[in-house]
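Our collaborator T.R. sent over the components below with a one-line note: 'Predict the complex.' Nothing else. No constraints on interfaces, no templates requested, no preferences about which chain binds where. So this is a plain run: every listed entity goes in together, and whatever single assembly comes back becomes the starting point for the next discussion.
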Amino acid sequence: MIQDGSLDRTSSLGAMYDHPLGRDIIDKLLLQLGRSPKWVDNFVIRRLPLGVVERLGRRFTGDGFMDTLFSLLNDVSESPTRTSGPVTPHWWKQAVFYQVYPRSFADSDGDGLGDLRGIIDHLDHLDDLGIDCLWLSPIFASPNEDNGYDISDYRAVMTEMGTLDDIDELIAACHARGMRIILDLVVNHTSDQHEWFKEARRDPEGPYGKYYILREGSPETLPNNWASYFSGPAWTWLKDAQRWALHLFAPGQPDLNWDNPAVRQEVADIVGWWLQRGIDGFRLDVINFISKREGLPEGNEFVGSLMEFAGVEHYFHGPNLHTYLAELRRDGFQRQGEAKEAPGHDPMAVMIGETPGIGIETGRLLTAEDRHELDLVFSFDHLEAPGKTRWDDYVYDLNHLKAYMIQQQSRLGSGDWVSIFWENHDNPRMISKVNPDPLYRTPLGKALAALQLLGRGTPFIYQGQEIGAINQGFEDISDFRDIESINRLSENHGGPVNIDVVRPGSRDHARTPMRWDDSPGFTTGEPWIGFHEHSTGYTVAEQREDPDSVLNFYKSLIALRREHSALRLGDVRFVFRDRRDYFAWVRELDGESFLIEVNLCARTINRPHHSTTQAPILTTGEYGPRLSPYEVRVHRVLD
Ligand code: NOJ
Ligand code: MG
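Returned assembly:
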């Protein structure tokens, strides 16, 4: 329980920082403002009453900010407990996941679009790599306004990608190799082509009208100031229904009304239906957005401008979020009938939430083992440097990632577990963010692999990372396909189109086809999005043959992880924490211990003296007193 009861204007800033959500909010504000969290650790600052903070900040925050904050914080009545003891060795803590973006992975029929048979044909690649579980971005029926994140039928496969028979075959092929497979559950919203929405439009007063967030009113007056993530307001006027429909994303992605028990039951039924087909779990799209504050209040403008989207404080950690997740776990993810921990049979299918805006403590509230909500979350605070957004053109300093990883681990108990990822289909390539100089592409790709695969948590590799994929040389507006980029490009208020506003952060960088080999490789037809990166040496075919390739390094690290439980479940202890550009940690379990070192910069650096005796296992440089740019070294610690 939170000890001091509810927070009000007489509570101190320190009390807010001791509250799990309060801490995350303060950390997030500081991150967005590019300030250090150390700022709050000051004795005087901690004692400031929140009423005083409100007065000092009112010039920026406007009225109502504190009241919104209190309603957010006082909804949370518990802190996650920080337990100690052995870690439960669930398979998903030990697994290496691999995200496939099916549209761009492999095209089997020459229509230029990746498909399920393409994935089946390339399972050897994933098996060779040592992958334990695949995650497929959406493959369900969809008009593809947002590449499948707009689903019109949750029990059908998108025609272009194949059939239910194909998915059954893929599930069976994965399981036959001892691999699991999870799908993407997009249930904050559906497509506007879903039968439920069509019915809601036809009869907004009928049962399906209550499946969505529809509001009466006049077409001139928006119900509130909430912004869509894909530009413009989060509301569309439905002329036929004479209602506004809420859509946090595109107009074709209306938000479901999770406060309606019938909607929650539908979602649980969909999950159960796929479990019966043998699916091992789901990644749940923007799942922390499902519970909206009652009355859908106006978003605070200060928060809106800081976070780029007005209204977010009313749904990123809504009042019923935890209840709805626990219910979905129980009613959907628990396997019916006979169960044992094995692919296709786990008693509890894995439940991984994509949770934008969720910080470390709130992440723990969502995943702590004894709370029975999610197993893992993806939060995103580590993906940009302080004060930066995805759209900024800047160099990402790996020392920030180091600070984040140390901070995160220091806050976890034995009942907590985290995901580790640098890339996905919504983000540019990490190598390009850190250092686009081709000279460092391979060593940097390997350094990122070591940070991910030997860190403490579950790694999620995004397709292409294993061959050192980088950003694309997009040159023209016609090169882009993504709704987010295209809307942003056209937002230029009458000014000339300037692709620099999307080039650094466009999601299309990660969505160009997988580079299997130098010939078309991905397809025999015309790919749905062009390749704009043709460097030699960075295709799967080339890297397979090269013992020093990024691909072979991934393979070695994954094999090492498989061999030693200390590298999967072991504790982590960071050493020489304050040494800039140098990152070293020890993983330990049952008397077995490993030291991992990574040079975080493009310069050669001195290696500090370690007092332990070590036996080297691998290096990407040469053993010696110095570490070459981005060098990785792994040693076994002998005493
Ligand atoms: C997050 C997904 O990862 C992204 O690709 C999508 O556009 C939004 N959610 C909306 O579903
Ligand atoms: Mg195809």
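Summary for T.R.: Residues 146, 149, 186, 249, 285-286, 354, 425-426 surround 1-deoxynojirimycin (ligand 1) (CB under 6 Å).
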